[in-house]
């Protein structure tokens, strides 16, 4: 079984949204202290590293993490490469036959240095949501920290996807991933009420 890990390693200093909660893992109790076990403590923002957005992240009426359909995050997926584009809209996907594809992951390679949060990267144009819905796509994954640029307040990309039933997976690590068909597993944690969740995301070639 050959799994390709497309998850960002979680460690102190992992690049996060400017001003957001820094990731930390510490041992809350050591084996010496308890006499039996090490016990860890993790502090993280829900938008750290490789993660999914629940609609509640940008819509107060939207689904929260525990309400999401898990089948979105497990199953066949198509990976395509779209390099050197400032943004991606319907026009950029016209050359692909996406018939039967429910999960689409786009490798942009536009986040060059994963050790720092990028000021700019390939983002999603507002006409993409309806195009993906017409193709039957329910999940869009990207190798950038957000489908909208960091200074966006309207979050047109997020809303366009959400309005058309397309769920969002962000921050995947795809430098080694070729175009093709895979099985994706990227399950959120069952955090009640949450706006997003870290995932361990893997691909398996099919
Ligand atoms: N929309 C971004 C996250 C985001 O906007 C954000 C994440 C953490 C802290 C602040 C954020 N945005 C605005 O203040 C995302 O989808 O991950
Ligand atoms: Zn997010
Ligand atoms: Zn997002």
TrEMBL record:
Zn(2+) 1 binds at residues 47, 51, 53, 170. Zn(2+) 2 binds at residues 53, 158, 170. Keywords: Hydrolase, Metal-binding, Tryptophan catabolism, Zinc. The keyword Hydrolase applies. Pfam families: Cyclase (PF04199). Homodimer. This is Kynurenine formamidase. It comes from Thermoflavimicrobium daqui.
